[in-house]
Amino acid sequence: MVIIQKGNKYTNSSSRDGHVPCCIVNHISAGSMGSMDNWFTSPSNDVSSAHFGVAKDGRIHQYVDIRRMAWANGLTATGTTQAPAKVVRDRSGINPNKYTISIEHEGVDGDLTEPQFSASVWLHRYIQQEVERIWGKTFELDNYNVIGHCHIDPIRKASCPGRKFPWGRLYSVLKEEQLDKVKVVVNGKIQKEGFLIDGVTYIPARVVAESLGASVAWDGNQKRVDIISK
Fold first, then answer.
1. What span, in angstroms and rounded, lies between the C-alpha atoms of 192 and 201?
2. pTM recorded for the entire structure
3. Backbone phi, then psi, for 39, in 5-degree steps?
4. What percent of the chain has pLDDT over 90?
5. Confidence at 12, pLDDT banded by 50, 70, 90
6. CA triple 182-62-225, angle to 5 deg
7. Which residue range or ranges hold the N-acetylmuramoyl-L-alanine amidase domain (predicted)?
8. Which of 7, 9, 69, 134 has an alpha carbon within 20 to 30 A of 45's alpha carbon?
């Protein structure tokens, strides 16, 4: 899958102040992917942001580098002691934005399309791998470390990521995937660990293409990936 970079100089972010991400927070956009793109890159937005967005057709947009803190899940110090999520209560007094990575999903009620669900599962695994690559730390993709905004702030965000969000299916697939990694070998050299979703192996196209000496170009208008041999 291809992650399309969308952040700009107006996209809100801050330092993590030394905190290593250990939690993924799922959100619902309550609008279209286009409105999400516009809001997270708008000069008039000085209140919120997210790391990623997942469209209904499976496109993944990135707004904030995961090395940075997005403005997505913050609470007051008092609020952290009352959050339903144990991962937040265990870090009482710390702004959850410091140690979380946020995923917005296009939609209004959390009823994800099949391409969207598959892309979100892929993205959860990608985030887990990137945290390990960047910080040398790992965390399980379980109901302690993968939560919704409602599990952080049940008062203001009780409906986020939506009443139809597929929590049971998500946890089940993520648990299966942790036991069923796939090693992708190109010309005898292991390039990256992929993983299975419903019998399909997923790995970034760029990893395989560049290992074969090709380049990858994304055409956003046609929603097409071009792999070009050198």
1. 12
2. 0.78
3. -70, -45
4. 73
5. very high
6. 60
7. 8-162
8. 134
